[in-house]
UniProtKB/TrEMBL annotation:
Name of the protein: Uncharacterized protein
Source domain of life: Eukaryota
Amino acid sequence: MEHAEFDVVYIARCRFYIVDKRLGKLVEVDDTGWNCIGRCKTLFSKINSYGGGMLAFSHWMNEDMIFNTSRIAAQFQVKYLATDEEEHLRQTVGVHFAADNGLRGFTQNFNEGVNAEKKIRR
């Protein structure tokens, strides 16, 4: 299964975007499971394994939560993406949904990682 190639992850108002290098497009990754703070470690691990870059977090996560979640987080620059910045990004680059662009594997593997983590905790 094909994975997205990306350098940047934007997170704004509980929505996640990647800029796919293959498509040259902004892609909204449709997975509300990412909204849970407790899943940050898996998120960072997955992004790191795909060679991700910057993470931008909206106001619903504070920096202490992010940096205390995983040492991997320290590799990413964290900044907040304001609503007007998000709108500007959506209008200038355009939004494509992951499921429509062969990127379903990205979300699927993320969910598999979360499920595996749950089993280990039990």
